[in-house]
Amino acid sequence: MKKLLVVLLSLFLLLSACTNNKTLTRNKETIDNNNVNRIVDGENLSGKDFINLLKNYTVRYKTSENVDDNEEFDSFLDDIFVETMENDYLNMHYTLIDYKAYGVEKPELTIGEIEYSDDPDISDLLDQIYRLQAFDFDSLSYRQQYDYEILEYSLIESLASTMYSKYDQLFTGGTDILSNLVTNFDEFVFHNQEEVEDYLVLLSDVDRYVNDAYIYTSKQAQNGLYLTDYSLDYTLDYINSYCSKVDDNTLITSFNDRIDSVNFLDDNQKNEYKEKNEKIVKEEIIPVFEKGVDELSQYYGHASVETNRLSNIDKDYAELVYLLNTSNNMSIDEIFENSKDLFDEHLAAFNTAYYNQKSVNEFQNLASGNVEPLGKSNEEILEFLANNYMKNYPNIGEIKYNISYLDESSASDSVIAYYMPSPLDDLNQNVIRMNPNLVSEDPINTYQTLAHEGIPGHLYEHVHFYLTNPANFRITQSFIGYTEGYACYSQNNALDYITNDQGAKDLAYVFEFGGYILQSIIDMGVNYFGWTVDDVAEFMNESGFNGAYAANIVEDCIDRAGVLDRYGIGCLSFETLRAYAIEELGDSFDEIKFNEAITKNGPMPFSILKEAVNEYIYE
Hints:
Blueprint: E1 2-3, H1 47-55, H2 71-85, H3 89-95, H4 123-133, H5 142-163, H6 177-186, H7 193-204, H8 206-222, H9 229-243, H10 250-261, H11 267-297, H12 305-308, H13 310-313, H14 315-326, H15 332-354, H16 357-367, H17 378-388, E2 402-405, E3 415-420, E4 431-434, H18 443-453, H19 458-466, H20 480-493, H21 502-527, H22 533-542, H23 550-559, H24 563-585, H25 591-599, H26 606-617
Parallel strand pairs: 2-4
Antiparallel strand pairs: 1-3, 3-4
Helix pairs in contact: 1-5, 1-14, 4-5, 7-11, 8-11, 9-11, 10-11, 15-21, 16-21, 17-18, 18-20, 20-24, 21-23, 21-24, 22-23, 24-26, 25-26
């Protein structure tokens, strides 16, 4: 999902480059594969202990000669998949069309639970990791060895994040459960009558779920953690916009459209379901959303930048936020310094291009939409991308998708567009949703947004990986720094299809994406290192950006702590791996093979992905 960031560039960038001399190196030490990353007596480990396990995570050597799968291990992975599906109806619905074919029993028809706790239950997570670590790693096939580590790393992440869950705020631009709820119901596909019935039961559960969110937020406040005024303004604006439509509310109109399109209901049934849905929306959904105005307004004036810096809430929690959002386990200091160095390199390239008239002319040509397919319809741009991605990505054949548009009243102002991945049992059911409120008049921005969400971004990465027939459980594993970082990396690669001028691409990179990296760095500065507004303004001005917006940037960093790092730091992590591969291979570097190496094994933490890149380098 591509998030909205409003940062204005000044016209002059006068910094020289700072060389980044840090490169990844292949670890050649001998590792005892079965005695690293062990969790013993996890019930007595603290949240910080789990964070340290993440920070010290050791990637094992994998043996490509191991071709025989361990059947018992595959059975265990299937059990993990089934357990995950049976734990969450909405997750199951978006993952599988025919859940019975996968041996899954329908989960309880509830949206989920929101509960404030100082002592969260981690027993299920510990049970899974104990079962995983009971397997002999060296007995697994090459594919299974990746599966083992990805599940292990994910479980350690989940253990750490669960231990700090009481700090997660639900009504901010970064989490925003109200718009997420609307999105989940707007995107709900009806394959049969049973799912229509299920939908209405789930919709009736929204009132309970949102009220639990209000109670959770009140308990946070009782313990000294309040929403900032900035977060409250964002949430209340969304509530007012959403509730302004009643008869034409998106949960009514979108439901009616979907019901009208199905062929398994007669007209009487369709009308009956429409009436039930409309009654729930008007009598339950809109009122419980409107209730948020009174429930949340009481928190105005209680929080500030200082009280809500992550480091002032809990320094360990602050570190975890960046580990999770960047899919990285380097220290925050290292991530921070590496990011600043790489950003300086991009700014230096921008400066060079800015004084090259040929590159400036080419960039202006692109920005004016004078190059095909810029300025064309979204459909035409995606068709162009589908016909050109093979220039630097493996060809995976035809990729099917649909483009649709959000309702203006329900679309979150923090979302430009998003990709709805296909379910496991139908790779053709892909949807790219655009926010009509945020349609850009910038042709390059529109082009890159479609590349980010579509091809060669999220859509391509998802379909490419699942064409390799991975274990089913992999679709349940999320590494947000990888997925969003990859999409940003690929949208910048897509510039290759519209220009051969490197200077023009350097200009486009900073103009279109530099703000994400800038705010990623500022986010860590504000939330972890304690930067003030003056510190941020100074950094922005020195970087060639307009420091007059520093106060707004700081508030946004508090509201959406860690969110922009998924994009900015995630993208830089891919760039770092690419630069490393080029340095190691020189003229033997192959762009298509490198992009295959970073996508063929699916989303994963960068520490494990580094080993996949090493396999490409040393093959």
